[in-house]
Amino acid sequence: MMNKKTLFESLQQQGVTRRGFMKYCTALTSLMALPPSMIPIVANALESAKRPSVIWLSFQECTGCAESLLRSHSPTVEGLIFDHISLDYQHTLQAAAGDAAEHAREQAMKEHYGKYLVVVDGSIPLADPGYSTIAGISNLDMLNETVAGAAAVIAVGTCSAYGGLPMADPNPTGAVSVSSLVKDKPVINVPGCPPIPTVITGVLAHYLTFGSIPELDDLGRPKVFYGQSIHDRCYRRPFYDKGLFAETFDDEGAKKGWCLYRLGCKGPMTYNACATLKWNQQTSWPVESGHGCLGCSEPNFWDAGSFYKALSIPDGDYAKAAGYAVATGVALGAAAGFANQKTKSSAVSQHTKVTVDDFDMNKDKK
Amino acid sequence: MEMFSNANDFLIWVRGDAFNIALFILIIGIFIRVMEIFLLGRKKDFSEPRGTEWGPGLKNIVSRSVVDSGTFKRAPFIVIVGYIWHICFFIVLLFFVPHIELINAMLGLQWPGLPSQLVDAATVIAIVSLIAMLWHRLTHPVLKFLSTYEDYLVWFVTFLPLLTGYIAFHRMIDPYPLALGLHIFSVELLMVVFPFTKLMHAITLFIARWYTGAMMGRKGIES
Amino acid sequence: MSSQALADIKVQVESNEYESGNLDSILSEIAFHLEQLLEQKKTHSIDLRAMPWSPGDEDKLEAYLGQGEIQIELNALGKSLFYETQYSGIWIVTHYNQEDEIIGKLIEITYMPEMVFSQKDDVKDSIERLKQY
Amino acid sequence: MSERIVVDPITRIEGHLRIEAQMDGDKIAQAYSAGTMVRGIELILKGRDPRDAWAFTQRICGVCTLVHGIAAVRSVENALNYPIPHNAQLIRNLMIMAQYVHDHVMHFYHLHALDWVDVVSALDADPKATSALAQSISKWPKSSPGYFADMKKKLKTFVEGGQLGIFSNAYWGHPAYKLPPEANLMAVSHYLEALSWQRDVAKLHTIFGGKNPHPNFLVGGVASAIDLNSDSAINIKKLSQVQDAINQMMTFVDQVYVPDTLAIASFYKDWFKRGEGVGNFMCFGDLPSTSMDDPSSFFLPSGIILNRDLSKVHPLDLNNSEEIQEYISHSWYDYSGGKDSGLHPYDGETDLNYSGPKPPYKHLDVENSYSWLKSPRWKGMPMEVGPLARVLTLYAKGHEQTKDLVGMTLNKLDLPVEALYSTMGRTAARTLETKIIVDGMQGMFDQLMMNIKAGDTKTFNEKLWEPSSWPKKAQGVGFMEAPRGALGHWIVIEDKKIANYQAVVPSTWNAGPRDPSGKPGAYEAALEDNHQLHDPKQPLEILRTIHSFDPCIACAVHVTDPDGEELVKVKVT
Amino acid sequence: MSTPVLNITKGINALKEQIDAPTAAFFSSCVHCGLCAEACLFYTETNEPKYTPINKVEPLRRVWESEYTLLGKVKKILGLSKPVTDELLAEWEPLIYDGCTLCGRCSMVCPVGNDISGMIRKVREGMVASDHAPEGLIGASTRAVKIGSPMGIRLKALQAQIKHIEKDTGLTIPIDVEGADYMALLSSMEIINFPEYIESLAKIFKQANLSWTLSSEAFEATNSGIQIGSSDIARELIQRVVDGAEKLKVKYVISPECGHAFTAIRWDGPNLIGKTYPFKVVHILELLDELQQSGRLKTSGVEDKKLTFHDPCQIVRKGGVEAQPRRLLNQVATDFVEMSDAGKMNWCCGGGGGVSANERADEIRLKAFNRKKSQLEEVDVEVLVTACANCRLILEEGLEENNMDIPVVGLSELISEHLVEDGEKI
Fold it and tell me: What is the spatial distance between Cα D147 and Cα D135, in angstroms, rounded to a whole number?
């Protein structure tokens, strides 16, 4: 069983030439969002790369992230699970169920202790362990148990990266992110609802290629994919700068591809690679298809205001606040005004007439 | 920063609760200040009027925006920079699309925005002119003499939104939610400070100009 | 029937109101690197997947660069197409996977894309195989 | 006392499902279906902009990624009486239909097939014989001996590599696997081909909705504007891509999915004799050619079939508080009117109260509450929803193509109509339905093209977009036929905000626990129907029947808060 | 020791009384731009920032802030506000009385529209009530109240002058003629220094054929109460004029060529006594202009000397009589030129607002005159015309001090010199 070849070796065995390997490296470099100048370095690293064991844990999730992975085309999900990684536990895809599935997980943990990767999708409810269980085990327990021997943890999707939808106000189940629980292992956040498949595979490819985790930003996201905002890389940005905006869906501006800022696009606050990688084999992406960015790769994006409110519009019930303020202001203003009137009228009533004799009298006093 | 686990949290707070609080204080403050003024009232004027009050009062509101040539000659810096600052500030405030969206959401009024390069240039000019005005205030004997801590506070809270706006627009602070959050927060600071400082001139100058214009109009003086 | 319906529709793409203006910058970037190639023999690659482009920009770029005199097809782990554009020294390289999906697309500013040359390892391998005959 | 078999996690499904089966010897006596994860999405929805609701509800499920989005926008449109342009209706229909085809094919190959196909056995296949088998059932081009030889080589390299990944620890070699090695190799090949195929067909969603999973929707229409002169709108290039996706779907369904289903079913005819659910079937109807207010224009009709009686299709009314009700007598919730009362979704209430065993646990307390799913009932009766319900309704209503397809299938397999009420019947119905849907897609697309040709490019109705134009209070129901069955979202809007939101979803109907009268839901009933387990340690049989329903559990678990009271009681454990 | 009758408490109370809505609006609007400094000749000629007009009203601002604003009240409770003390008022006294002529130029340039000079006038109320008025003004006020004229001129002195004029010219100067249409007022300065004015009046009324009179009880037009800034004193003095006019049942009271007198009688008077007058107040220039416009005043001959007009602040800028002097001048002069900043933007002579009566201010007043001096140098005229006896005196003094040989003439006088004599052909 323990016949583990390097990726290069197994490609060679399939009859792949050096030229083919270079092409493979070119695609992988592009996938990892590295510049083409990195191709030789990637090739070099790949010659000794081995398939890591991956345990994928699904907690409070919707399977959208796993589905997203299934849309990966470069590498394909087949390529990924046959050539790049050994996906030893993944509810949506794995053949085994029940005890057998759990044994697969335990086996992988034992065999690859200290070396396997844990991928998590979904948040973890802390309010009650009964809010989410697998095989009778609470999510928290399963996470702790599985992460113990992991080399690194990849939190795939905004739920596992930042708490996501379950954590949205009022967070009924006390959901939390992976990184708020896992402190002693490197955690790579791959947010998005779901993340772009290429980004998931890109992060896995990076680990496979370099045996390390990519450079992360303050929110634990790989900078290569999350280093720039949607807005900065949006092909509609020139229209924003020219002041040309779609005012409603389906108007002339919408048809001409003008900026969607006014329709609530959260592109300016959203760090993700949608604008360049696009979705589903570069077929399109949300802004290209006429809908503003929801901001799905950002923490708490669910609570960041209506998806159709421009980013500059305050999110609270400001009309109500203003209403109360006007009422209070009028009342307090009247009170202050009447107090002033009182001050003044008492000053008037305390007025003692000044006469020229007073000057003399004062002089005498002095 | 324990209150916020990340920049987005901060942005959500400044766009939500903080904005409401700031708006609340701003509106209440303005009402109090304006009512304090109006309820003090004016004595009835028994002198025989030579002209009316309303027309000249309203006219003065507009005409005071033009400085007399003598003053311009004596203090060209403050006049020119003052104009530039106010014009650029209003360009930025009223013609940057995100600001228009805010106004539209709050008041239901909308108008076309300007290209962001233009707004950006106006921001830079406004920032430079504010700095110049601070320098002027620190060096001109009269301004130095007149200035109180409030003048510097007001300068600061006015400068901050421009600076943070510029930073946010150019994404000079990462991540953007933090930059935008700081911008909005600085505006909220301005909103909170507004009713209790000379920033109120933005509202009361209309009242002041009207009173003076009306008083002069009554006497038949062109004001 | 439906493909006919498609063909029936007259399409006119006109007016630059639709132009995002993204093309200008890439063309000047290419020109810069072409000069570098000539003067300093520096090659350069641009990953087209990393471009923040409108849906039509890539087509427009390709149409603008046009097709030159040489085209090379490579078959390794799926197809790869190399062709020089009308502008000598500017190559467009498209890599496909075995399912014929594009997995990489680059503009290479070079006299000849590196991958077209026979690779040393493969030549060594060839020698061995020939010797086995 | 016989043993209690637990299957948890049930894999190759959406969500977290646990089955406990009380054995009587080798036979399942009682089965208990439990959803073991709760998020509280409907509680989260409260107080939000109704126009945003689709994005939240869509995240109920990333597999049937579209259905909750559609139901949500429809519920808002229904509440506000908000008409949408015809193009938008057609585009939504196309997206729904693409979802069916995508979802059903993926379910068959990636979630269900490994219950019938032994991957390890495929290593023994003769590529030549495999090719012959493949060519005998279909003209699908990828069927040469060389192709299968390559596949076999790849599989062999993989298995010998020692890291089996997703195939590790499965019940390979279980005697219940009956396919010959060649059929297994063919099925494994198609498993991989389907993975590649699904990537392409998902593009239809991406074109109109920007991405998949979780494409974008819009109350009042669709966000993708149509302008043939624009790069950045739906233009000829994109419409051709849509046509390509439809063609790809049609070809794969015709040449791979349908033949494979028939071929595999022919080896498992005994599975047409077990796994019947509750015998009642329900459809809400969907795919209007005009509007949702006009059920007569539905491509998929609504109706109820009771007790296998195909001679009568009963009407149903989603707004009638006496018809659809949800029960919680065996769910981890409380009702103010008592554990045994039933409530219509508009009046529904939910009080989250986990009373199960403290994790880690071995068994659930099936006498009391044991699931995060509620038990919806129609006039007190349990219903099965999904492909079988839809095929039966179409069949009962005399839909010609359905009758032909059902007849052809039963004929080919030499089975009576009753065979449909079974595990394999359910799986076959899904395939037949896919065929019906994919054939209907071209018509939908042609209608869209005709509209565009006639100059109608309207995709969004801005009339009621601004909340200021809404009434102070409104309520409505958005319904659809999701791939897994009838789906309804009930919304109450007050002061431009969501006051109450409730989703009653297909898997609640099918996977819900017992009701107050002890009547089991469809999963439980199906498992209790004639299931012997060959090896209790390898309960493959349970997986087969459960998978035949295509479970989607995240959808089924929900929390509502109709009264705006503090409902979530966090138990201190 | 008992408290002085005039003290800080009274002063503050007086300031409190003075604050009204406009004041509050003005203080709320000031942005400390400093432009008012550039409008004030005391600043421009000394370059001392303390003379910035808005700084002069600091005591009033402090009272406003701590008594009439919410934040100020809070600050006061917390002990953070700057109090108004006797020392402060003492320090401010020279700014208010010596360094301000109440010319109102600052009120014209303030970009937010603040009537700063109006507020300085209010500060004077507090100054008086706390015994911070300058000696000169106290003396003048005392004389005005007790003797009837700030310069101590009694009726006898006037009568002597009248006799003199009547004798010299053959004109009659009516006194106490009940039922006359016009009652003329005079400023002490005219009686003493410029009796030509009385002569002019007589000529003018004669030619216009109007019935007029002087009042033996109310001949003095000036109002030291306004200058010192005490409404109480001003009221007393105004009351005399009103009583006098009412007693003689005149229709019009004519304000003489004296700036603050016009302000006092025309604009402040009715408000001081709290009612409208039963007569109208017109300035002599208004009357002259009206007579001329209606053709009842005929002039002949013109001055061909280059001359200019110094606008008395209280008459022009603060009194609204701006066009009239120009029309009149153009009638009798061919080479009338305007100084820069003429009309409502005119610079004060430096002696208004009681400054001329305040010996302490002599030095700064002469400094301030440099403004006028340079204005005059610019136009280089042979004759300087004005319409205020006080201005005239200050101008003469200033010109002399600067060795400038330009005669100063009263406008009424100039007009009267050109009146067509009886029988003279035009």
Answer: 12
Structure confidence at residue C17 as a pLDDT band (50, 70, 90): low
| Mean pLDDT over each residue of chain D, to the nearest integer | 93
pLDDT tens-digit map of E76-126: 999 999 999 999 999 999 999 999 999 999 999 999 999 999 999 999 999
User: For E276-296, what is the mean pLDDT?
Assistant: 94
Residues in chain C within 8 Å Cβ distance of A18: 119-122, 125
Fold of B7-219: Fumarate Reductase Cytochrome B subunit (1.20.950)
Q: Would you call A334 an interface residue with chain B, using a CB distance cutoff of 8 Å?
A: yes
Task: Spell out the domain ranges in chain B.
Answer: 7-219
ipTM (interface pTM) = 0.88
Catalytic member of D61, D107, D369, D377: D61
Nearest to A274 by CA among A310, A313, A225: A225
D283 belongs to the catalytic site: no
Q: Give the residue from chain C lying closest to A39, CA to CA.
A: C45
Helices (H) and strands (E) in chain A, counts: 17, 9
CA distances from D308 to A301, C4, D312, D423, D432 (A): 48, 45, 10, 15, 19
Exposure on the CB side of residue E396, measured as CA atoms within 13 A: 14
Tokens of A181: 């629980």
The nearest CA of chain B is from the CA of A130 a distance in Å of 26
Domain assignment present for residue D495? The answer is yes
Question: Which residues in chain B are contacts of E271 at CB distance < 8 A?
Answer: 43, 45-47
Strands A124-125 and A175-176: antiparallel
In a 3-state reduction of DSSP, which class is residue D271? helix
| Beta-carbon separation of C47 and A22 below 8 A | no
Tell which CATH classification among 2.60.120.260, 3.40.50.720, 3.40.640.10, 3.30.1370.140 matches the domain C22-132. Answer: 3.30.1370.140
User: Could you tell me the residue ranges of all domains in chain C?
Assistant: 22-132
Q: Cα-atom radius of gyration of chain B, to the nearest Å? A: 20
Domain shared by A56 and A189, yes or no: yes
Q: How many domains does chain D have?
A: 1
Residue A277, token pair as written in the block: 């990688």
Same domain, A271 and A323: no
Which chain E residues are Cβ-neighbours of A331 within 8 angstroms? none
Helical pair D400-413 and D258-267, crossing angle rounded to 10 deg: 40
Whether residue A347 is predicted with pLDDT greater than 70 in this model: the reply is yes
User: Does C120 touch chain A if contact means CB atoms closer than 8 Å?
Assistant: yes
Active site residue D14: yes
**Active-site residue, selected from the candidate residues D107, D283, D524, D552:** D552
Are residues A218 and A349 located together in one domain of the fold?
Answer: no
pLDDT at residue E17, as a whole number: 96
Q: To the nearest whole angstrom, how far is the Cα of B9 from the nearest Cα of chain A? A: 7
| Listed residue (A45, A28, A46, A47) closest to A36, CA to CA | A28
Catalytic residue among D18, D51, D68, D107: D68
**Residue given tokens 């606008």 in the structure block:** E311
Going by C-alpha positions, the residue among D200, D195, D252, D156 that lies closest to residue A77 is D195
Model confidence band, residue C13 (pLDDT cutoffs 50, 70, 90): very low
The confidence band for A274, taking pLDDT boundaries of 50, 70 and 90, is: very high
pLDDT digits (tens, 9 = 90+) for C54-102: 888 888 899 999 999 999 999 988 899 999 999 999 999 999 988 888 8
Highest mean pLDDT among A229-238, B84-93, D2-11: B84-93
The class that CATH gives domain E8-132 is mainly alpha
pLDDT in tens, B196-220: 999 999 999 999 999 999 999 999 9
Cβ separation D243–C3 shorter than 8 A: yes
| Residue in E5, E13, E70 nearest the CB of A361 | E5
Under the banding of pLDDT at 50, 70 and 90, the label for residue D495 is very high
